Structures are given as C-alpha cells and as structure tokens.
Amino acid sequence: MMPAGVSALKDMEGVVPTPVPYYTPTEMATITRRALVFLLAALGGLAAPVTPEDQKPAESLRYDEVQFKAAHNSIDREESLAAQLDGSPEAPSAGNCRGLELDLVLDPARVDAAGGWVFGVQHGGAFRPDTPRLERCLAEIRAWADSHPGHDPVTIHLDLKREATAGDDGVFAREIDAALAKGLGKDHIFTPALLQRGAPTLLEGARKHGWPALRDLRGKFVLVFSGEDNDEAVARRRRAYVRSEPAERLAFVDLDQRAAGSAGADECDIESPYYAEGSRVFVNIQLGRKDWERLARGARARGFVTREWKANDEEAWRKALEAGVNILSTDRIRGSAWAMVGKGPFRNVMGHRPDHAPTTSRN
Fold first, then answer.
1. At what angle do helices 134-146 and 169-184 cross, to 10 degrees?
2. What pLDDT was estimated at residue 30?
3. What is the SS3 assignment for 314-329?
4. How far apart are CA 19 and CA 244, in angstroms?
5. Residue 283 and residue 264: Cα distance in Å, rounded?
C-alpha cells in the first residue's frame, strides 16, 4: 500500500497554485519552520510536536495573532455586559469574552447640529424611549474595567443600524466620539492613528509597524464600527466617519463581506477592489456565506483582522477556529462547553493546538 503521505502528495498533482499571500518576515520564518515540523510528523505517522511559537505566552502575541471569543448582540444576551467579560480558567466556556457588540440607533428627535445627540443600543427598529442608552452600557463596561486594572484588551463592535444614520455625518462623528471618550476614557482607547503611525494608509501602517502585543494593550479598548454597506445610508455614514479628520477618530471601521461582491467581484477574494481602499483593517465575515473560509484565510494572510458572526453551534465554532478567524462572535455566552478558545481567553491563531487535541502514535 502506498504510504499515506506519498498518496496525499500525488493527489495534489495538477493543482494550480494560489497566489503567494502577504506575510511579515517573522511570520514567514514561523510558517516555514512549522511546515517542516508538521510535514515530517505526518509522513512518519507521529503527532506533530508543539513548537516554541505554539508555546509563546499569549501576552507576547500581537493582537492580530490571536483568536478570542466575543458576544454577539450583547444587549440581547441574558448575561450582563460584565458577566460576558468575566471568566476563569476553571470554566473557560462561561463568559470569558474579550469582545462585545453594541447595536446603535439614534433618537431622531435629538440630532440637532448643536449637539446633544442621544444614542440607544437595540437591534434595529425605531428608537424606543425605554431602549438602553449607550451611555449606560459604556458605564457598565468602564465599571468592569475599573475593577480589573490592567485588564486584557476588549474589542467593542458598534453595529450601525439604519436608525443610526439620521442627522449630519460630521456632527455624528463628533458626537459619537465624544460619547465614547466620556464613557470609556480617551486614554483607554487604542485608536487607528496609533496603528497607522504616519504610514500612507491604515492598512500599510498595520503591515509596516504591526499590531501591538497584548501586553501593550492591557487596559485598552479597541472600537470598531460595523454595519451593512449594501444599505447606502449606513455605507455613507461609515465612509464619512473614516474620512472625517481620520487622525482624530477613536474607532476603526470594518469591511463588510456582503458588499464586496456588489459590483460583480468575488466577495471572498481579498484582492477584490472593495478590500483595497486601505482605510479599513477589520473584515466582518458572515459565517457560512459562500466561500467564507477562503476569505478569512486570505484576509488574515494580508494583514487584516477578521471577525465572523455568528458561531452558534460546535461545528461552526470549530470551522471558525480552523479558518483562523480572530474574533469569534457567538450567542452562546454560557452553557456550551465548546464555546471557548482554550483555558485562557486568547489562542494563538498561527496553529496553537488545543489542550485536548488527540495524539497519534506510530503504527
């Protein structure tokens, strides 16, 4: 019988190679070393050994080198925002989120050019008088942060609904940033300018300088506006925020997979024009939509940070982990043993093996 490794190689004959993705020199060295180790292990029928890179402490990994659990539609979950963030190594699937999502709407009666805008947090629909205010949600998050000094970086996705597009775009940018600064503390926010650092575009800054290590982001929040770019009002507001005094903005704005194919392009090809503008470094991926795994891997290889929504069963969660998605969004905050990335809140996206991974002995 032909050895399994040789058979696998023969099966690949005639396959057209894909374009070489972007990697930093450090990542390229790591990939090469790890590929040799795993190939030798596979041909020999042995378990692949854990490399020093796999054992690298989480705090020394860069933000874009890790995977973490995030709550989807946080305000709709049974758990409080603080409970979504809380967690322990003894029960890693209970909470332990390092990402939250707040869906934004506006009180249409309070969008005066003079300011004083009122932001609500609800999953779309007309603004309700009883809807939780953004101010209250940020206060709860800040209270958790104050009780956990030096906390892990927390990423907050702010999902702009159509009901958050009223009023002047320039005033919106000033009002929302003022609310975020007041609620979380401007000094506690890692802003796009800190990543770009003088590079021509944000993406070039991420590739040239790299994201900070987790230890350098302790006590910080990373804020990201998401939203559906196929909705012209939402797309307009998101574009305006990016372009309005970009060096002063507090939040990133992501790229929406659903909009990447609107001009007939392949929405799962990270080389498509939609992804090439340079002012956005997060890609929001709809899990299960078309060839989403190819998009996740391609985006990660070219310097983007990826998020999916929403991994609500074990198979979806496993696929998102294997595709290298950085931010794994889910409704399963507690009660699902699989909803974790490991004993801690972060996992190495470059191939760190879970603690329960089986080993294979020589036959």
1. 30
2. 52
3. HHHHHHHHHCCCCEEE
4. 35
5. 19
The secondary structure element, H or E, covering residue 175 is helix 169-184
Degrees, nearest 5: CA angle 174-175-180: 100
The mean per-residue pLDDT over the stretch 351-359 comes to: 38
Percent share of the chain, pLDDT over 90: 79
Query: What is the rounded distance in angstroms from the CA atom of residue 126 to the CA atom of residue 123?
Result: 10
Residue 337 pLDDT > 80, yes or no? yes
Q: Which two tokens stand for residue 186?
A: 């401007």
- Kindly tell me the burial class for residue 243, based on how many C-beta atoms sit within 10 Å of its own C-beta (0-12, 13-18, 19 or more): middle
pLDDT tens readout for residues 33-72: 555 444 434 444 444 444 445 557 899 999 999 999 999 9
User: Among 153, 144, 141, which residue's Cα sits nearest to residue 184?
Assistant: 141
Quote the CA–CA distance of 244 and 332 in Å, as a whole number: 36
**Higher per-residue pLDDT: 2 or 285:** 285
Cβ–Cβ under 8 Å, residues 226 and 104: no
Query: What pLDDT digit, counting tens, does each position of 113-132 carry?
Result: 999 999 999 998 999 999 99
Contacts 24+ apart (CB under 8 A), 173-178: 173/240, 173/241, 173/244, 173/245, 173/249, 174/115, 175/115, 175/117, 175/119, 176/104, 176/117, 176/119, 176/241, 176/251, 177/248, 177/249, 177/250, 177/251, 178/115
Residue length, the chain? Answer: 363
Residue scoring higher pLDDT (349 or 32): 349
Distance between CA atoms of residues 281 and 62, nearest Å: 15
Q: Cis link prior to 310 (omega < 30° from 0)?
A: yes
CA distance 36 to 43: 11
The stretch 306-323 carries a mean pLDDT of 97
Rounded mean pLDDT, 210-231: 98
